[in-house]
Amino acid sequence: MKKILITGGAGFIGSHVVRLFVNKYPNYEIVNMDKLTYAGNLANLKDVENKPNYSFIKGDIVDAAFVNELFSVHKFESVIHLAAESHVDRSISNPLEFVMTNVIGTVNLLNAAKNEWKDNFSAHRFYHVSTDEVYGTLGESGLFTETTAYDPHSPYSASKASSDHFVRAYHDTYGMDAVISNCSNNYGSHHFPEKLIPLSILNIKNNRAIPIYGKGENIRDWLYVEDHARAIDVIFHNAKAGATFNIGGHNEWTNIDLIHLLCKIMDKKLNRAEGESAKLITFVKDRAGHDLRYAIDSSKLQKELGWVPSLQFEEGLEKTVDWYLANEEWLNNVTSGDYQKYYELQYTKR
Ligand code: NAD
Ligand code: DAU
């Protein structure tokens, strides 16, 4: 049986990747290793936790001794690395945490993998899941391609850019089979309500202000999370060693247009009069260093590996809203305790 380590599998995207691999590949042994930070939640994996090919290990990738021991005991065939601090606003208040997990944690994994795999790199793969934010920001036109120069602006994107460079260095210097994908903004179920879409769904539901940074003119390119997980599956199994792929949905929205669409969906779902939820829109102080526009050219992935996004945005957004409205207990659990403190710090003085 192939033993595959998935790091960060209790988080938003990681839980969708774990679910896909556990269900699609019963002959793979999937080991989910996660620190269970505020963003990690084993309730995200309730439907697969009892499957015979799934196991969970709690651990911190910043702890090099733990990571080395993990690799030496488990003899992983490959790694899909998603564990990270992922929220730009938190990186602005606490950059060092991002350096520790995203940079040091990634290098710890690379070192452990190198030590275990050095005699036969071609039998193993290190797959690093990264972001389009490493490319910086676009003006009104153009798309990020795999050869766009790195130009990160936030501590989060700087830490992800650094981790990407280390992964490439281990491929180029030691010959490790490493692949990287850089994806645009994901949305879907199990998304922690600190990010724009789940936070807005929660606030609309509770009749609370929807905080829009600046004028809401920033543009993001949204992809349904299950389409990202499918892309990771295709790249993991088919990419050449050393390859990079951009993943995106050709689905650009200004934040304000997206929120109007979400308000319309929520009015319908909550039986509110049309226009009721949009009254909650509140413009607040802009994010420092706020990138204007992200947009991905994913034609390499489409042409070389045949991946295409499966869902139209309105359909995906409606499915997402349905999931949040049907999973009140999940929302209550993740928003108890520290979430309230975070919310006050982030929004009340804006
Ligand atoms: P998330 O914040 O929802 O989940 C991150 C997971 O990593 C959590 O389960 C957390 O407990 C775990 N983790 C954090 N620090 C850890 C540590 N030190 N040791 C072990 N585990 C730790 O993040 P996400 O949105 O699911 O993103 C997953 C990956 O995908 C990240 O690498 C992120 O940079 C990348 N990405 C995210 C998006 C997006 O839109 N969310 C887009 C492109 C790329
Ligand atoms: O592009 C990929 C990246 O997308 C991932 O690498 C990150 O992990 C992920 O968090 C996401 O980053 P963003 O900063 O784009 O996502 P966020 O949901 O935080 O913000 C989306 C847009 O909405 C952005 O322009 C900022 C704005 N925003 C966000 C929040 C939380 C608001 O206007 N108000 C808010 O309260």
Please give a handful of descriptors for the protein shown.
alpha/beta; binds nicotinamide-adenine-dinucleotide; seven-stranded parallel sheet; 16% strand; binds 2'deoxy-thymidine-5'-diphospho-alpha-D-glucose; two-stranded parallel sheet; single chain; 12 helices; globular
In short:
By secondary structure, this protein is an alpha/beta fold. The chain has helices at 12-24, 64-74, 88-93, 95-117, 155-174, 196-205, 225-238, 255-269, 299-305, 313-326, 328-334, 338-348; strands at residues 2-7, 28-34, 54-58, 78-81, 125-131, 178-183, 186-187, 210-213, 219-221, 223-224, 244-247, 252-254, 281-284. The strands form 4 sheets. A 7-stranded parallel sheet has the order 3-2-1-4-5-6-11, sandwiched between helices.
CATH topology: Rossmann fold
What's the average pLDDT?
97
Query: pLDDT below 50 for ≥5 consecutive residues: which ranges?
Result: none
Bound molecules: nicotinamide-adenine-dinucleotide, 2'deoxy-thymidine-5'-diphospho-alpha-D-glucose
Structural class comes to: alpha/beta
Q: Which strand order does the major sheet show?
A: 3-2-1-4-5-6-11
**What is the overall silhouette?**
globular
- Report the radius of gyration as a whole number of Å: 20 Å
- Give, in order, the helices and strands: EHEEHEHHEHEEHEEEHEEHEHHHH
Please, could you describe this protein's structure?
Helix 1 (12-24) packs across helix 7. With 350 residues, the protein is α/β, with parallel strands linked by helices. It has helices at residues 12-24, 64-74, 88-93, 95-117, 155-174, 196-205, 225-238, 255-269, 299-305, 313-326, 328-334, 338-348, and strands at residues 2-7, 28-34, 54-58, 78-81, 125-131, 178-183, 186-187, 210-213, 219-221, 223-224, 244-247, 252-254, 281-284. The protein has a 7-stranded parallel sheet with strand order 3-2-1-4-5-6-11, with helices on both faces. The mean pLDDT is 97. The longest helix is centred in the first third of the chain and has 23 residues, at 95-117. 2'deoxy-thymidine-5'-diphospho-alpha-D-glucose binds at residues 86-88, 131-133, 184-185, 195-196, 199, 211-213, 218, 220, 255, 287, 294.
